[in-house]
């Protein structure tokens, strides 16, 4: 793509539709305001098959309360001992203090008011579970894969940003990769919770000395995993209609359902959609018809052979 920074019409429409879908699914996200197409054209290999075509350039106007990201704080990064690289504002703690003051007072005023003496600690306590842990739990529950979850694509106010090589899973596959250039599977569907936690660790490093690392790392270990599991199970219970009674074995039920969907190649979205149409008061004679509908959303033996084909390089 020659790194020309241009976006084309098809990917812009896709981005516009997805962010609006996410908003109406109740998932925190930036919104799409307008989609403007120009007469300028670029060459793109749409299917990466050696057949490039000319396409129109397009701009999506994206709306959010702020576009400050975790990566915004990495401008203070000290010199890396291996690469020699450093942030453009290294040693400028005055700017770091300004950024923290702005973010907390503007977007988290309740923390500013309630914890003025220990504000930075409580800021990290608050954002660790509420921003990445709950957001990624929401993604996992609708089968959304972001595709490029680096620190620059994590919003400081917990919105879904950067709709680049995203994708929603069809056939359930915990190792699904939506980004064609993600050769190692770093941003695979089942890695998203882990990578968001890693990004939080990088944010913690970027906040030193305003927040000592030993404090932020302890907060991260105590809060993140517990909050993710809690919110994920809360959401999954509602997807399954388990709203009147919460049992300890609900987590095992969800795991076994997903394992069954994986082994049968079940469609993630359609299976849940069909389950929502099943009535516990229905006639037992209707069960067979319902099961037929469920199995119609599973893959054929031939499709499963392809899906489970070993991915290791033949060499």
TrEMBL record:
- What family, per the record? Belongs to the SELO family.
Name by which UniProt lists this protein: Selenoprotein O
Q: Which Pfam families match?
A: SelO
The keyword Aminoacyl-tRNA synthetase is assigned to this record: no
Reading the lineage from the top rank, the first entry is: Eukaryota
According to its UniProt record, which cofactors does this protein need?
Mg(2+)
Alphabetized GO MF terms:
ATP binding; metal ion binding; nucleotidyltransferase activity
Q: Which organism is it from?
A: Phalacrocorax carbo
What keywords tag this UniProt record?
ATP-binding, Magnesium, Metal-binding, Nucleotide-binding, Nucleotidyltransferase, Transferase
